[in-house]
Every structure is written in structure tokens, then in C-alpha cells.
Amino acid sequence: MSEPQSGAPARRGLSPGAVTAALVTPAYLWLTVAIFLPLVAMLVFSFLTAAPFGNRAVSFTGAHYLVFYNRPYLVEVALRSLALGAWTTGICALIGLPAALALSRAFRGRTREVLFFLVILPFWTNGLVRVFSWTMVLRENGILDDLIRTVWAGAPSIGILYSYPAIVVGLVHAYLPYMILTCYLSVVAIDDEILEAARSLGARAPVVFGKIVLPLAAPGLIAGSVLIFVPVIGSFMEPRILGGTAGVTIGTVIEDQFTQAFNWPLGSALSFIMLAVVLVVFAVFSRALRGRLTLS
After folding, report:
1. Which of 123, 159, 178, 188 is the most buried (most CB within 10 A)?
2. 276 CB-near residues (< 8 Å, 6+ apart)
3. Phi/psi at 48 (5° precision)
């Protein structure tokens, strides 16, 4: 075996820091271009007297942020939107966590693959098509009414189209996969030996779920809640199509400012106000949830 030449420079690989920087730089560049720069532009718009287009004189003002507090109906609409986000997130959690548990524990092989396919199937269709399909199901004398009357001929119509529950149904259908997938990633990582040890010590199923499964699944629940609550607060397509006159949310108000009134500064200001409210709500919620699960 030949000896390495004494004068040859030693080969050095990239340092871990350089490798990490090379891997994350493209992602952060994309986030900067696609998210942060538009947010900065919208923040600037929110302090302008008018959109900086055309020949209109533009100056800086903070009056658009005061409009939210000077118009009580906007506060009412914002609270309604927060309630809509809470209802949608709560229902998704109640359905998503048990579904994730079933996928991780009760099913194996091809059956699990088929169920996962059904979970992600809504992502394969256009969101507008999904919403309009619900109008055929929820309207009076629609598909749901026909199914009920097949079983009970004299059943009254339960069509809920153009109502608050119809909006919740459409939003749960759209965002439930996020909760199932995030909860599944947390639940599937739970060691079976921990559960078996708890059962062998006499713990019943509710105790095992409350003391072991729920705390360990908390990261998935929190991640799923963030992925659902934030976009639901600003949603406008489902409330507008499924809610009718009951579908006025902060998302529809903001959309109207951009597309109907062409008041971009006010729409931007309302967007940032809701962003601040959502951040505060999640800071309080996440801290309280983590503390409660830790104590349990």
C-alpha cells in the first residue's frame, strides 16, 4: 500500500454548519420571495391613504387601523370568524385524533394504504368544486334529503344550505386531512410497550388515553390546530358559497375590500389586525394546552 505524499494537502469535507446552510438557504430564499416580501408590501399598503396605483396622491396614515374599532360590526364579524375557526378546529380534532389512532393501531398493510388514500383524496380536487358539490348535498330537497326520505318517507327537509352549520361542514371537509395527518405522525411514534405497561398495571382505556396518548399526541394536535385555525379565520370561499347572507366573515370583508371596493389599504390593515389576533390566541392556547398536558 502506497504511503500518502507528505506534501499533499489533506482533504477536508464541508463543515456541518456549511452543509446546514446549503440545505436551508433555498427554502429561506423561497419564503422571503413568496411570503415575507408580499407581507412587507401589504404592511406598507396598510399605512397608505390609497393604493399606490394610478395618478392618485398617496400619503401615510394610521387611520385604517382605527376603522376596525370605530365600526362595531367589524368587531362582531371578527368574533364570528374566531368562533368559526374554533368550531372547525374542535370538530376536526374530535374526528382527526381517533381516526389517526385507528390508522396507526387498528389497520395494517393494504387496508391502511386505502384509508390514507381516502384521507388525502380531497386534495386531488379543486377547492371550488368541493364547495359547490356540498351545495348539492346540503340544499333543500338535495342529496341528503333524498337519502333520509329513502329511509323515512315523511321526513321533513333538513336542508342547511346558506346557514352557519353548512359553512362548518364545508370547512371541516376541507381541513380535516391536515388534522388526521399531523396527529398520525405523533400517534404512530408512541411506543407500544408504554401502552402495554400501563395496561398491565391496571390502567383502563380512558386513563391510558388521557394520561399517555393525549399528552404524547399533543404536538400533532397543536400543529394540526395551527394548520386549520389560521386559514379558516381568513376563509371566504366556503362562507360565501355555503353561508349566503349568514356567511359574512372577516375573510369575506377583506376580499370585498380588495375585489369590490378596491380599498387595498383598509383590506391590508384588516388582514394585519386579524393576524395579530390569531397570533395572540394561539400563544395563549398553545401555552395553556402544553401546561395542562404536562400536569396531566
Report:
1. 178
2. none
3. -100, 155
